[in-house]
Write a structure and sequence with these properties.
- There is one protein chain.
- This protein is α+β, with helices and mostly antiparallel strands and 204 residues long.
- The chain has two domains: 2-77, Arc Repressor Mutant, subunit A (Orthogonal Bundle); 89-203, Orthogonal Bundle (Arc Repressor Mutant, subunit A).
- The chain is 51% helix and 14% strand.
- It has helices spanning 11-20, 29-36, 38-47, 89-107, 119-127, 136-152, 171-175, 178-203; strands at 23-24, 50-55, 60-65, 115-118, 156-161, 164-168.
- A three-stranded antiparallel sheet has the order 1-3-2. The chain has a three-stranded antiparallel sheet with strand order 4-6-5.
- A hairpin with a 4-residue loop joins strand 2 and strand 3 (60-65).
- Helix 1 (11-20) crosses helix 3, helix 4 packs across helix 6 and helix 5 (119-127) packs across helix 6.
Amino acid sequence: MRGDYPEFRDWSVAAVRLLQGVVEQEDGRVWDLLMSNTSQVEQFAARLGLQLIVDEAEGLAYLRQFHEEDLPAGYDAIPKLFRTSRLSFGQTVLAVLLREALRRYEEEETHDARCVVAETDLLESWKSFFPSQSDEVKQQRDLQTTLHKLEDLGFVRRFGKEPLSWEVRRILKARLTADVLEHLHEQLKTAIDRKQGTDAVADD
């Protein structure tokens, strides 16, 4: 069986890591392999119906599904590896808060290598989106549940325990561009206004 294997190519390491998630510049050898073999990885991914996105300025790379209108003939028959998941209201709120934290971090031109946010600071901002909820223990539990969901999506990762902090990963910037962020702000404002109006009717 071993003789039937195709000759090993080191870019396969980068290709598999991309299938697992985001590759970042800090990944060292994997990033270097990707940079040295971008065209090979790009062609490999394309045969799976995936587009390779490399943002050297941000130091990250990831795969995404081709848009339906961009697919060549026959490629629409390939099953999708990645599914677009719709964020819940709470997940959208948290994604916007984290994206804003990343924007402030970049504007401050700090020398810190990572954008890190304390969970207590997130909670204070989180509570303003749920004014009718007075149970802070439940709010904290909801925030932590939502953080773990965004961790599964690769947007954050736990950074420290004392105090409990989270690193905002740069893939969030790629997923939530300035235009998307503005759109989400409007959606949240509309949803909050509608909810507050419903609460006011219920109080009458």
